[in-house]
Amino acid sequence: MKIKFLKNQPLINLPPNIELVVFLIKEELKNVKFTNDLNRAGIDTCIGFLDFSPLISAIIGFENCPSDEFTEWYFERQTELVENIDIRNDQELLEQAFNFYVDLVVKKRECLPNG
Description:
Layout: H1 16-40, H2 53-60, H3 67-82, H4 90-111
C-alpha cells in the first residue's frame, strides 16, 4: 500500500509499517471527527465508534505505558487534532494523521524505562 500524495507535494518514502499506521490513524481521525460532530448534535454514536488504538499501539510497539493513562491521552489528543479540520480534506487529514504518529512515537519514548 502506498499513500498517494498530491503531485505538488514533496514525497517522503516511509517504511510500509509506518504507512499502514498513518493510514489507520487517518481513518480513525475521520471517524473521531464524524462521531464527535454527531454527539454534539445529540446522536448517540457509541455503537459505531471505530477504535484502532490496540492495533496502532501494537504496530508502533507500545509495551510499558500504563493503559488507562495512555488511552485517555490517546483519545484526548485525537479530539484536539480533529477539532477544526474538514474531514473531506484528505490532505489535511493525512497531515494530522502524520502529526499524531509523531506524537505516538514521542509518547512511546516517554514511556520507556530510561525515557
